């Protein structure tokens, strides 16, 4: 997964560099080159180092803009819908192996019956964790890499990223899955939500430096959900992913308030005590 990502970025970085950057290196570039050569490095080594520096720069420059997810982990209804979305559309391929159904049920205020009926499709007991329906060895063979576990993905990548990833699939005839993704170029995840979102194409413009700029999506076929409904779907799903990446978030916050209150009360008592003890010492 990481390797495709880097391959994609490196490919982009290098192609940008090949076409135009080397030409634009100009004075600064040649000074760096000379310095590196002067330092006793072989010319090719110097070029490699320079290429690396430039690729990093190109990488930073091609960071995609992310639309904010705007989700709210305190919204239980949204979390319940997100859990349903995840179990229906994602858990076929993705596990969330640090999440137990019974913990989930407690956190999302679901009864055991609701849990069993609505979420536990491939589990028997409520203490089981969320496993992918698909065997991971096969998944790795089919997709090139196993679909990553989703327990911590929202923390690893950020909620905005995941939101844009879910919304970012667009038609690409050169890709084996028929689609590519705006935020993860060359992804091997298929557009699993095509029935809901429909298909879209992405418009990219290329500026005079050869850098691609994302201009927007164009809807090609309609899905069963409107654009707003699909945004809600993605937002709820991201919300659920953020929730499972830190289920104790709300407990931690409540505890934090209590700790602060204790510290304040303790400080008052301590300062009164200090005054009492020191009152005769002048
Ligand atoms: C058909 C199998 C399949 C289904 C269903 C599926 N995914 Fe994926 N997913 C993958 C594969 C394969 C990857 C690895 C892609 C890569 O690294 O190029 C992946 C990667 C991801 C990533 C990580 C992207 C990154 O930056 O590394 C996220 C987030 C994700 N999927 C979210 C979801 C969500 C949310 C759903 C449900 C709406 C879902 N996936 C359903 C196969 C699937």
What does this structure look like?
The chain is mainly α and 282 residues long. The chain has three domains: 2-61, no CATH class; 76-245, Cytochrome c-like domain (Cytochrome Bc1 Complex, Chain D, domain 2); 254-282. Helix content is 56%, strand content 12%. The protein is built from twelve helices and six strands. The strands form three sheets. A two-stranded antiparallel sheet has the order 1-2. A two-stranded antiparallel ribbon has the order 3-4. Strand 3 and strand 4 (179-181) form a beta hairpin. Helix 1 (2-24) crosses helix 3 (43-61) and helix 9 runs antiparallel to helix 11. The radius of gyration is 26 Å and the shape is extended. Mean pLDDT is 84; it is low at 1-30 and 57-61. The chain binds heme C. Heme C (HEC) binds next to helix 4, helix 8 and helix 9.
Helix content: 55-70%
- Strand percentage: 5-15%
Q: Structurally, how many domains make up the residues? A: 3
Radius of gyration over all CA atoms, rounded: 26 Å
Please give the structural blueprint:
Blueprint: H1 2-24, H2 26-38, H3 43-61, H4 76-90, E1 96-100, H5 101-107, H6 112-118, E2 129-130, H7 136-143, H8 153-157, H9 159-167, E3 169-171, E4 179-181, H10 194-197, E5 198-206, E6 212-222, H11 227-245, H12 249-278
Antiparallel strand pairs: 1-2, 3-4, 5-6
